[in-house]
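Running co-folding for magnesium ion.
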Amino acid sequence: MTDLGAMGWNFDNSYARLPAALFARAEPARVANPRPVLLNHALARDLGLSLRAVSPEVAAGVFAGQVLPPGAEPIAQAYAGHQYGGFTVLGDGRAILLGEQLAPAGARFDVQLKGPGPTAYSRRGDGRAALGPMLREYVISEAMHALGVPTTRSLAVVTTGEAVYRDRPLRGAVLTRIAASHIRVGTFQFLAARRDLPNLRALADYTVARHYPHLAGDANPYLALFRAVSERQAALVAKWLCVGFVHGVLNTDNVSVCGETIDYGPCAFIDGYDPDAVFSSIDDGGRYAYANQPGITQWNLARFAEALLPLIDSDGTRAVELATEELNRFPNVFEREWTAGMRAKLGLRTARDGDAELTREFLNSLHANGADFTNSFRALTEGTLPATLRAWSEKWEARVLAEGETPTAARERSRAANPVLIPRNHRVEEALAAAEREDLSATERLLAALAKPFEERPEFADLREPPPPGTCYRTFCGT
Ligand code: AMP
Ligand code: MG
């Protein structure tokens, strides 16, 4: 038995004390040869962990699920979800929650292995993951964090020394995911579909206590929970649009009630601005396209409201009235969050009527010219907008002067809202292809660059370039 105490594990297992319907005990599969690929020492420090307290080989054993941290009670979580509009009962088919790390500052974080082998919810899946998609989640989730977008984090990627079989054999891997929690809209739907009111109430009370403790004393804490989750989702999706992120598979099981971006599958960042941008090979109808994300989030919240109805009021009609009133606030809350985010990108200090229109004119012009989203906003910051935007620039300057600012000051203010670097798809793909050949240098370079996305560093200038014209990027769900 290896002594893992020195790593700083401080586990609790509050989810495993919830009603048994919500989870199944699980055990990570034995694997041939765990090897470390990426270890996130900075994140570990924030969690009160020291990954250097043990050898990389021992750390790999932990993150492959071969040796459990002291106090771990591994479980797979039950949930359901609307996938592309159709309701399905799911659950962690390829993920195991080890426990909850209590960090030094007092916060509680789920520590979950993704790809550790089958669970009670695996159906016909193998419960495994391939290296490429796990590295992709690591790179993109850490980039999102550095961009200031709420997200699950990535603590480690290890290979298992075994092949996983997709359309061809791939290197098997396990990602260690850190989340404020893994409670999804679909977790509520799972109990609501079973008409399991006592357990639904237990889950709602747990969620309030864990994520929204200030609501516990509210006259109607369940309606207040719905409002709070809606507001966090509105803020989250506004942030996605401000960095050009397309989640790709916004099913209700991929919507976290604490408002973090979760379940990185066929996601991608846009290069050229296109509101209809879709990357997922199976999203034919564009259900989860860039500009559809606010609307689909409201649709997902409607499913959340339905699940909560019996808790909101014992009179069904009254419950629907109350929930509908909250749900109808979503478009305004989203518009407020989006306008605030875009105002920051335009370097504006105060809020004025017409700001949303000024932003939309800018975006329409990018769309018409096929201009790069990230680089165009950064060009505003750097004072290098092209001549095609001359008329718009004059309007922008007039708007800036109207609040008593200079364009130089506004550009300076916009610096912190307009990233230089995003994880561009062609660069991520290039890095993952090299990693599959056991060359991690491009992945490590990408991580170093994306850790400080607002800094202009000449050594990473190549990562600012959009892909060659005509490149069409597609992502695949079969991860
Ligand atoms: P995701 O695409 O990660 O949101 O997964 C959707 C559902 O499919 C979840 O219930 C997963 O647990 C399940 N799933 C995905 N891949 C696998 C796999 N290789 N083995 C078992 N279940 C899986
Ligand atoms: Mg999912």
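Result summary
The chain is about 40% helix and 15% strand.
Residues 201 and 461 are 52 Å apart (CA to CA).
Job closed.
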